[in-house]
Specification:
binds magnesium ion, 217 residues, 5-stranded mixed sheet, two-stranded antiparallel sheet, alpha+beta, binds adenosine-5'-triphosphate
Length: 217
Amino acid sequence: NVSHELKTPLTSISGYAELIESGMAQGEQAKTFAGEIHKSANRLLTLINDIIRLSQMDAPMPDLKFEPVDLAQIATNTFEQLEMSARKVDVTLQLDAKQAVVEADRQMMDELLYTLCDNAIRYNVRGGSVKLEVRPVRDKVIVCVQDTGIGISPENQEHVFERFYRVDKARSRETGGTGLGLAITQNVVKLHHGGIKLNSTPGEGTTFLVRIPLKYI
Ligand code: ATP
Ligand code: MG
């Protein structure tokens, strides 16, 4: 699977470069092909970064830097980062976050919220919405990402956390997806001794619920 995912963009880079080099493509066409090369190179870069992140997490002693992290603050930052992409697809963002400080790896928490919210926007519909809730409950923090998007069928719900699994390969590829986001998310949750589950109804939307303990024991 990994080799296929890596070869596809490389084949396209090599092919377009050859056309430009040989002079078969010129002017505007050469420019378009250069754009394709750029796109595939970026895709490859994202992919390689994700694969490296995953292998680092698989290490016997993953390098986690635990510190107090306010998930409400991270939620606010995440929405700021995603505001533009949400606006482009006419998706409304709603935030309901109460201060919730956990002992966690900050970069991983950034990644966790970003991945879930990015998906909630990416697999949404025009005019849809994404609601992000963060609240402390006793000895843990609950993060809830609820969207009004396309949903995930029960058959696919079992697989979305698998590496490279994408329900709609075409749509995911078009939007730059690699199918590693949720695999990384699940690892992050495990490394923090938390939990993640999802509820979804096709055509109505999806809710991801994450639980992170306040203190890592
Ligand atoms: P990337 O690695 O760039 O995030 P991706 O979005 O395709 O790529 P994941 O985030 O792991 O990969 O998600 C896996 C698949 O699960 C997606 O391709 C999509 O089909 C489905 N999915 C994830 N989140 C949602 C959601 N909120 N609504 C509907 N489908 C979703
Ligand atoms: Mg994703």
